[in-house]
């Protein structure tokens, strides 16, 4: 029921934005002014933290924030204000902001409803807004059912989308927002909960017991999504792999990268392969389904690679959109190589399983700008909510596998 309410709000907000192609977000200049306006209009506050030299801040400005549906959704239901985190370190510390861009949604009485790294896709950004509205409706309904006196109802502005009905937004559980911290009396009139406790870093030897299937809702902590098509969705895809991580990275040495033609003429030399192969070697599997990895990482675009511009790396054939992209990859392939060779890192650490990732469940992490692919949405959401736990562990496993595959290199 909770998800149904979220999707209903997303549909409503998107529909409202379809009629305005040049709408702009009505940012307030000061936090206090935003608070006063939100209180007067009965709206929630949207605090957007950004900083300089932030590639994802720039992408958000050029992408989702130019979307008519996003701007309409914000203007009709929130009072937004931008906060430069570097120039306002006390505010950033107060609101527990450690990554950029970050959005914090609060009520006028100081209750935090959302605290997350900003989603990059317009539809996912709207989903974040909808999640906060559902949480707000649940909180009000919970207070009402507990017999607490609610403040006098204000007439909602004509341009405010109605909140979901109580019987839709209510669930058997209490709101999932983390407890608010108490602020000093002279501080700004909002209080922000600390982000969820960060679990210990995952490692190849010890994985967390949290199961990805426990992830629910559409609240997204770290949404640096891979680019989608015109509709914001990525076409379905699958990857076939078997064996261990070390086996999948057996040809990992950068110095031994070959062009497809060279690889086709070489005969397998190891005993295991020779015993199974009597004719011509099988063709290497396409990496990222044949799309140019450089275009995805550097330009945020799914560009099909050209067959004549190919390089075999980690046992897979990488195709490129142009010679410059291929040369850049050859000079340093690591930034453009999917983590664990497209293996689902959540399934690997949590379940000790080698599960292929899929392109439609792919993200780029905000720390190292590396591609991660997952077997399903649950694993992707789990990663986004606690991605810090997996980054170093995944890099360690990959480096170890490459070292074992290439001793002495």
Automatic annotation (TrEMBL):
Residues 1-23 form the signal peptide. Gene3D superfamilies: Glutaredoxin (3.40.30.10). InterPro entries: AGR/TXD (IPR051099), Ssp411-like_TRX (IPR004879), Thioredoxin-like_sf (IPR036249), Thioredoxin_domain (IPR013766). Keywords: Signal. Residues 2-134 form the Thioredoxin domain. Residues 233-281 are annotated as: Disordered. Residues 237-257, 266-280 have a biased composition (Polar residues). The keyword Signal applies. SUPFAM superfamilies: Thioredoxin-like (SSF52833). It comes from the Bacteria. Pfam families: Thioredox_DsbH. This is Thiol:disulfide interchange protein.
């Amino acid at each position: 029921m909770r998800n149904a309410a979220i999707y209903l709000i997303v549909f409503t907000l998107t529909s409202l934005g379809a009629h305005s192609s040049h709408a702009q977000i009505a940012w307030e200049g000061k936090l206090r002014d935003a608070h006063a306006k939100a209180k007067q209009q009965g709206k929630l506050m949207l605090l957007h933290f950004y900083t300089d030299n932030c590639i994802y801040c720039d992408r958000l400005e050029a992408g989702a924030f130019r979307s008519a549906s996003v701007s309409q959704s914000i203007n009709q239901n929130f009072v937004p204000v931008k906060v430069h985190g570097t120039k306002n370190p006390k505010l950033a510390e107060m609101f527990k902001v450690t990554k950029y861009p970050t959005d914090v949604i609060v009520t006028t009485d100081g209750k935090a409803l959302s605290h997350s790294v900003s989603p990059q896709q317009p539809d996912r950004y709207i989903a974040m807004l909808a999640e906060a509205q559902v949480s707000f409706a649940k909180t009000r309904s919970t207070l009402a059912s507990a017999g607490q006196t609610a403040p006098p109802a204000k007439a909602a502005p004509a341009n405010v989308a109605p909140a979901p009905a109580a019987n839709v937004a209510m669930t058997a559980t209490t709101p999932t927002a983390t407890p608010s911290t108490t602020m000093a009396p002279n501080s700004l009139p909002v209080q922000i909960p600390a982000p969820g406790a960060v679990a210990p870093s995952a490692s190849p030897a010890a994985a967390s017991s949290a199961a990805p299937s426990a992830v629910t809702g559409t609240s997204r902590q770290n949404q640096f999504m891979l680019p989608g098509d015109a509709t914001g969705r990525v076409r379905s895809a699958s990857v076939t792999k078997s064996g261990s991580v070390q086996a999948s990275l057996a040809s990992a040495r950068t110095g031994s990268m070959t062009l497809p033609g060279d690889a086709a003429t070489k005969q397998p030399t190891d005993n295991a392969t020779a015993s199974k192969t009597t004719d011509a070697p099988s063709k290497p599997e396409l990496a990222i389904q044949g799309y140019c990895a450089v275009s995805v990482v550097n330009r945020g675009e799914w560009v099909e690679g050209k067959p004549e511009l190919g390089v075999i790396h980690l046992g897979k054939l990488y195709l490129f959109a142009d010679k410059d992209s291929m040369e850049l990859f050859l000079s340093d392939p690591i930034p453009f190589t999917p983590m664990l060779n497209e293996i689902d890192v959540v399934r690997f650490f949590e379940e000790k399983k080698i599960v292929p990732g899929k392109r439609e469940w792919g993200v780029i992490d905000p720390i190292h700008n590396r591609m991660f692919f997952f077997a399903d949405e649950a694993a992707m959401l789990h990663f986004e909510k606690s991605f810090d736990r997996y980054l170093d562990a995944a890099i360690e496993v990959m480096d170890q596998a490459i070292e074992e595959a290439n001793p002495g290199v």
